[in-house]
Each structure stands twice: as C-alpha cells, then as structure tokens.
Amino acid sequence: MLGSFELGLSLHVAAPKIEAYYQFYQTSVVPSLGSGYQEGCSAWVYWRGRQICDTESLESTLKEVSTGERSVKVKELPFDHVYNPIANADTAVLYADIEDEQFKVFHDVLKKAAQDGVVRYILRYKPVVGSKRGQSKDRPLVVSGYGVELMLKRTDYIVIDDREVDSEQSEKPAQAKSEDPSDEESPVITPLHASELGQLGYQAVQLIINSSSPLDTLQKLSQDFPSQSAKIAATQVDESVVDVLRQNNQVIPSGENLFWINGMHVGRDKVEAFNLLTVMRRERGLINSLRKLGLSNIEAIEYLSHEKIAEKVESGTKNRFDFRDDIEGGNVITWFNDIEKDTRYIHWSRDLGHVSLLVVSMC
Fold this sequence. Notes:
This protein is of the alpha+beta class. It has helices spanning 2-11, 15-33, 55-63, 101-115, 200-210, 214-223, 225-233, 239-249, 273-292, 297-304, 307-315, 352-362, and strands spanning 44-47, 50-52, 81-83, 90-96, 119-125, 259-261, 264-266. The longest helix has 20 residues, at 273-292.
C-alpha cells in the first residue's frame, strides 16, 4: 500500500484533479459570491450561499439547523471528496489547503456534523494564499507521463565478429560466481556458440528467479542483454522451471507478451504506470472486502486468481447466480442488497410491519 502511494506521488497522479479544483474555484466559486467574497480567508466553508471564515460562526450556525428544514443541495463535481454521501441534509463545502493550519479545525467540526447527520460534507482544494508556498503558486505543475528522453547505449557488440568462434567453446563455460547481473560493473561481451542458444530463454528465467532482486535483474537483462549473455548461458536450469514455462507456452502465443494481476489480464496498451496504479488500487479494495468476510490475504488472492473467475472476466459475460432456496426447502429468501443502506429503499418506511408487508408482496 505504501509503495503504491509513493508511486502515485512520484507520478503526480493527483495534479490534474487539484488543478481542476483551482480552476473551478477561480472561475465559479469566487464570482458566485460576488462582493460577499473575503479573499483573506485561508480556509472557509460554503453554507447556503454564503462564506463562513471561522469555526465559531460555523458551529453556532450548525446548531441552529433544524432537521425539518428543507435541505439545500450543492451540485457535486465528479472528483469531489464527499463524506456521508447518502445523508439527506444540507451540503457544507470546505475550501481549504490540507497543509493549512485551519484545515484540521474546520475538518473536525464538519466531520462530526456529518456523522450526526446534520450536513453532507464535501472537501475541495483551493489555491494557497498568505504563505510562503503561495509565492510559487503561478509556477506550472509538472504532469508525469509526458516528455522526451534521449538514451545512449554502448553498441560495440554490433561490430563483434563471432564467425571464428573456436569449436571448443561449444561447451558451456563454467558457472559464474555471481547469479546477479547487477554485481558486475563492467561486463565483457563474450560471443556465444550456436549450441548455447537453445535454452537461453529458460536460462534467463532461471537467472532472474535465482537473483536476490528479480525485478532489478530483469531490467538489467532487458537493457543490456549482450553483455549478460555469457552469464545467462552459464546458468543451470531446473527441470521444474522448464515444465512450468512449457505449460505457459500452451496459453501464451509464441512471441507474445501477456500481463496478469491477480489472474486478471491487462492489455498490452494498458501496461503503463497510471493504469497499473489504478488496477492495483482496485485490486486492493477487492482484497480488503474479502478480508472483511474472514479470508486471509493469500486466500483472497487465490480466490481472485481462480481460473473460473478468469474465464468469466476474459469472456466478458455477466455473472449469473442461482439464488433460489431449493436446498432450504423453498422457505428462505436471500437478499443481495442492504435494505437499510441501499439508496433505492431510502424512502421506505422504517416501520417493521410495513416493511414485512412489502417483502411479502414482492415475493
């Protein structure tokens, strides 16, 4: 979880959303308040068309709210942070920078009010004012994922003539001292004999598996394969690895690259940092939901990676469930939705007798 969070920070994945908040604040929020807008408020709450800049006024205002009053709705943005989204109450919008000292004070007041069902609490970011960080607020914010890169690589292996390789080199060289390519700072390019190319792919996989840092080794082999070819050819291959790779070849077409996360296939055009981060976050949510049901992390991953589920995902068909209670004799009804929390039943009466009549009538 921490790793994906750090990856998101390095990619600046939140930058477009924050800039959208800033743009909305300058072009819509400020003009809508007109002369009533106070520019000096570092954090403030939008409540029923007016601006509240101190928590004392906010608390006194919320205490005067009557539960019988007609609620005033605020149009939500697609990327809003909404607390207590199903509450049938007025909406209070906090405009603040999360590093501002006043943010936590306002947040605590609004969070408690939302928990009590008094308000629907929405947090939106606003540009920083009155601070040292505000001096650089006009500086463009870098968005990752776009740019130009110039890569220089040694190409001396292109001019090596390996046609005069001695026949004695047909035998594989001795096992290298280190299995990790990253341990060799200045590798020497050694030409390989044709007889050494047969299992080179299997040997590369075995070398990566044996490495103390498999991902780093994979990167090293991918970026500088010629200098590591001799070390790969010296690797002894375990027969179990060969069996697994041959089984995979029955699923993976020759020359194709496939990518899976918890048994879900990720398209080749989707294997990029932004999409992978989104997929990992979604998978984490699924695993956490399964853990709440009593499964361990390993059991949750095995469940998501099950071949039957993978078949459904790959085929794109909708899941169908037999919810009939034949096993129980036809006297049990299992609900797939939560009557108390589902928004479709929010207008139903809370009277138990009334609900029972509705359930019987639906059966």
